[in-house]
Amino acid sequence: MVTRIVDLRSDTVTKPTEAMRAAMASAEVDDDVLGYDPTAFRLETEMAKTMGKEAALFVPSGTMGNLVSVLVHCDVRGSEVILGDNCHINIFENGGIATIGGVHPRQVKNNDDGTIDIDLIEAAIRDPMGELFYPTTKLICLENTHANSGGRCLSVEYTDRVGELAKKHGLKLHIDGARIFNASVALGVPVDRLVQAADSVSVCLSKGIGAPVGSVIVGSKNFIAKARRLRKTLGGGMRQIGLLCAAALVALQENVGKLESDHKKARLLADGLKEVKGLRVDAGSVETNMVFIDIEEGTKTRAEKICKYMEERGILVMQESSSRSCFPSATFSLL
Predict the structure, then answer these.
(1) What range(s) does the Aromatic amino acid beta-eliminating lyase/threonine aldolase domain occupy (predicted)?
(2) Nearest 10 degrees: Cα torsion 229, 43, 97, 147
(3) Quick one: DSSP state of residue 296?
(4) If you compute the radius of gyration of the chain from its CA atoms, what whole number of angstroms results?
(5) Band of residue 322 on the pLDDT scale cut at 50, 70, 90
(6) Bond preceding residue 87 cis, omega within 30 of 0
(7) Which whole number is the average pLDDT over 217-239?
């Protein structure tokens, strides 16, 4: 009989700590749509300071955060954003930038480490002389950490180079920083320095740092003013969100410091799994809190069977395909 469940499906399945629940219960709140919620103001002020930007805005989800950010930068329908073909915005956000914003995604191949070759990015920028025929390039998007690459980190040097390229061509740079704190800890680079080159960043509160709900986008005061209006248009304007922001403040204070331990446990797990016959794990690519497992060709099993076998023994994992299992994101701080 299973007496304990170890849930490694995702770092999105964390539960609020007692400190978070207490903070939510006692949170001072007001109407945030009217701009008066004091706890939301505290969170946004803290996040802007932490990320080295002028202002911040709480949004219900990372998907909305990325969508709002892209639409602020690409404010004319028919604009184009350059992004990686394997990035979260391109694959997992329901095509929102195109279907809702009329923004064309110019996909460029991601490398195994989540980067995109600088020369390929530059080659993808549209020639303004062809504006009669082509979409107008407005934005470059990066993702750090890069989830589909196994949580790999984009270095500050690489990000700076992309930022310089964007400025050279009069473009903006947005970073999908859903797990930017993981990248900061893994690289040993202050988070504000890591995103210094970006015009905007979305930061998830409910993944690696374990808050129950929400993301924050950061940028200039002008950017956030436009983002606030778009958030309302998309249905993301909520009232007493201080209840949620209170838990996020606890997460920032208590859980960022635990990420290094998460990463060490992920590497320990990867080192053990790579010794299992029939499984292939690139332990060297485990830089943060994600472990991907591939089933070797010729092995007489499937990911579905492995996942079920582990579930019967109290270990929950996630299947990506018939040959790939199990942790699109494994969070270890709760083990």
Answers:
(1) 7-294
(2) 180
(3) P
(4) 20
(5) low
(6) no
(7) 98
Cα separation, 96 vs 62, whole angstroms:
12
Which CATH architecture best describes the domain 18-255? 3-Layer(aba) Sandwich (3.40)
Phi, psi dihedrals of residue 308, rounded to the nearest 5°: -65, -40
Rounded Cα–Cα distance for residues 139 and 82 (Å): 6
Phi, psi torsion values for 94, nearest 5 degrees: 60, 25
User: In Å, how far are 17, 34, 72, 212 from 24, measured between CA atoms?
Assistant: 11, 20, 31, 11
Question: How is 20-37 classified by DSSP, letter by letter?
Answer: HHHHHHT-----TTTT--
CATH number 3.90.1150.10 given to 6-12+257-328? yes
E strand or H helix at 176 = strand 172-177
pLDDT tops 50 at residue 332: no
pLDDT tens for each residue of 268-299: 999 999 999 999 999 989 999 999 999 888 78
Nearest Cα neighbor of 210 from 3, 5, 19, 4 is: 19
The one-letter amino acid code at 286 reads V
Q: Which of 109, 107, 183 is nearest to 150 (CA)?
A: 183
Q: Is 80 exceeded by the pLDDT of residue 334? A: no
Cα–Cα distance for residue pair 123/165, rounded to 1 Å: 11
At residue 328, the pLDDT reads 42
What are the φ/ψ torsions at residue 170 (nearest 5 degrees)?
70, 30
- Return the bridge partners of 81, or none: 105, 139
Contact status, residue 224 vs residue 198, Cβ threshold 8 Å: no
Q: Cα(44)–Cα(131) distance, rounded to whole angstroms? A: 38
Q: Are 291 and 113 in contact (CB under 8 A)?
A: no
Higher pLDDT, 333 or 319: 319
Residue 59 CB neighbour total at 10 angstroms:
28
CB atoms within 10 A of CB 94: 11
Mean pLDDT of 134-158: 97
User: Contact at 8 Å (CB) between 35 and 201?
Assistant: no
